[in-house]
What does this fold into?
Amino acid sequence: MKTAESPTTISECSPPDQRISHQPSGTRALDFRQIRDKRSATWNAALNASVDVTKGDRPDLFVISIDDNWPANCSLAEHPNGTHAGWCSCEVFQATTVCPHLCVLRQHAALGELSLPIREQR
It folds into this structure.
């Protein structure tokens, strides 16, 4: 069983040279500990899914395919304080601001399988 919300320091997730200053319009603040606890069905769906993660042309951009369904474009970055900011093109995110695609990215980052950039504060 994967355990994807174990404590992970910023340095383990993001090399210091990966910083971004902006994300797509509609990006929302995300607290993945709260999502894991209060939206466990979404969190667990991401844990148990067969996923394909493809990096985009910026450090925060990814294309995520879950269980061979239509892929979604996602942006996820970490704030210096450890919280996250994310956006996804899927209908679930548009309706609820929490989706399995972004949970997949956070889980993969927590397991050291990908790096998330630091979002600079404006």
